[in-house]
Amino acid sequence: MKNLVLLIISGTILISCGKKSDLIFIDRSSVPVRIQKEELVTFDVLNQHIITPHCISCHKKSGTEEGVAKWVVPGEPEQSKLFNSVKEGRMPKKANPLPLADVELIRQYIVDLPKIRRLEKIDFETLKNEILVPHCLSCHKKMDNEESLQKWVNHQEPMKSRLLQSVIEGKMPKKGEKLVASEIELITKYLNQFMK
Fold first, then answer.
1. For residue 159, is pLDDT > 80?
2. What is the pTM of this model?
3. Separation CA 189–CA 187 (nearest Å)
4. Torsion sign across C-alpha atoms 5, 6, 10, 11
5. How many CB atoms lie within 10 A of CB 168?
6. What's the CA angle centered on 147, arms 144 and 150, to 5 degrees?
7. For the segment 1-22, what is each residue's pLDDT rounded down to a tens digit?
8. Contact 92/55 with Cβ under 8 angstroms?
9. What pLDDT shows up at residue 100?
């Protein structure tokens, strides 16, 4: 009996230490979701396998990336409310805790988020035409070229740039309508080029 137990434990250790070519996440519909190691977990994947089936009935605004953003610290799952509330079983409420594979999918989405955002970029001309001309240049005339705009950009921590933070905090634009989420996202996409 003792030898049988040792054999089972040894076999389990050997199997679990083997090389894994990809990760497999299985949702409750028993349709496997294959995520290759090289693939990034995008919001579309998260939305399809986690948000829509488990969250949207109570959290209506979570069906968009902006809706989920307030619950996530990009690249930091342990600092993210979304990950911690699901990992600790506090969410979803009035339902069974999510399987570990689903928790891992959420964790991987948060880890991959900075990489995904770095891939989403816009150039200065797009920023100028969509944001600066209609909202900024009437007061900040020198922002009409990329070199002058750089004093508003924090190159060490681009998402803490005055260009973005002044809009998020409601300080800019001083005259006219506040920017909507899609316009703020354009600023973020411009700043992504400075991410390391």
1. yes
2. 0.51
3. 5
4. negative
5. 14
6. 100
7. 555 444 444 444 444 444 333 4
8. yes
9. 94
pLDDT in tens, 69-109: 888 888 899 999 999 999 999 999 989 999 999 999 999 99
Task: State both tokens at 105.
Answer: 């999918």
Distance CA 37, CA 22 (A): 6
Contacts of 55 (CB under 8 A, 6+ apart): 62, 91, 92
Q: Where are the alpha helices (DSSP H) in the chain?
A: 2-16, 43-46, 65-69, 81-87, 100-119, 124-127, 146-149, 162-168, 181-191
What's CA 59's distance to the chain center, in Å? 17
**First-to-final CA distance of the chain:** 56
